[in-house]
Amino acid sequence: MSKKDYERVDLTIRSNTKDILAFTKLVPQRKKRIQKASAEPIKEDPVNDLAEKLHPNRQYLVIDGIIDNTKSTKTYKLIPDPDSKTKNLAYFRPGQYLSLKVLVNGDLITRPYSISSSPKEALEGFYKLTIKKEEEGGFFTPYIWDNWNVGTKVTSSGPEGFFYYEPLRDYPQIVGLAGGSGITPFLSMAKSINDGTLNAKLTIIYGCSDENDIIFYDKLMELEQKNPNKLNVVFVLSCDEVSLQGCETGFITAEIIKKYADVETSSFFICGPQLMYEFVEDELQKLDLTPKQIRREAFGEIKNIEKFPGFPNNLANKTFNIKVHIGKIIKDIPGKSTESVLIALERAKIGPPSKCRSGECGFCRSLLLEGDIFISPVSDWRREADKKFNYFHPCSSYPLSDLEIEIPRNLQ
Length: 412
Ligand code: FES
Fold this sequence. Notes:
Layout: H1 3-36, H2 46-54, E1 59-70, E2 73-80, E3 97-104, E4 107-114, H3 119-124, E5 127-132, H4 140-147, E6 153-156, E7 173-179, H5 184-195, E8 201-208, H6 217-226, E9 231-237, E10 248-249, H7 254-260, E11 267-271, H8 274-285, E12 294-296, E13 319-326, E14 329-336, H9 341-347, E15 366-370, E16 373-375, H10 384-388, E17 391-392, E18 397-399, E19 403-406
Parallel strand pairs: 7-8, 7-11, 8-9, 9-10, 11-12, 13-19
Antiparallel strand pairs: 1-2, 1-6, 2-5, 3-4, 3-6, 13-14, 15-17, 15-19, 16-18
The structure holds FE2/S2 (inorganic) cluster.
């Protein structure tokens, strides 16, 4: 070895030794700093401040405008409540939702709604939520239609959910399969592509019963014309007589999907009513996709759980007793086999925290101490460890016997 080589090796050994010594001093030095630190709470905490801005537990909003979209759909423009401390809205990713917290006849009800505006518009100071009035049986959307006016104060969660484009996971070609008001996350994506905050291509295949049922027709056409290489919108109408030029008819079938999308290099995002999922999922099966290529928006509570395979029909509409532990309090409440455990808890005014109502967010996670439940097969998002140790999500679980459960306190 030359002298230069010896010098180089010597330098490397010395710098490595220095690194090792510095590492061994790390912990004692940290301990000294902790001992010297003041016991006073820190006045400025930029990390937690940023976390609070991005993921607030609650946002206090006020309705600034209402647009009638179709005979059964309205869009509400929400701005920060000038009377609240927070003047900014939390940023979000197109496709995420807000969980509304609304007092209906004395009961605090939570419901998730996808944001139909773009993240850039949140920076400008507003969100838009598009809400379709339930046709039958529902009480939440009729309440909103009758009671929400310009100036009404509204409380929501921060932006939530995983139904967004992620370049590390998804193909840059998104195919949005939408039904009815399930168009809202795709409108947010289309607006974001248009304003440059989302770098992807989007083909929306939008199923509606007829032309009058299409929400945002003009806006979608305008965005498509402005972005011909990045955005394509295809309408699929199921009515008998169709006058809209260039649309497809019937339902969103595998043939229609193949006609407009390169199946092997696209990620498929589905959002719409429960019936549409059932149909579209069967069609997607014919395309031989990898599981990673299919993304589903959590669509809220399941309707007609008794129609799902595996639900014991002899137990439909039976009522059971649910013994509920909340901290040291124990309560007995009734629970119907065809209504989720979450609904039974809310009816008894002891609802745990909840956001998605689809088994996805984990906020209502509770412990099953005794009894049998039916878990909706399309909204079972529990972790493997939770399954093993009997944790369950009341929003997607239905009592099949008397139950004993432990739920978290609702501090929302
Ligand atoms: S409310 Fe989200 S998992 Fe139950």
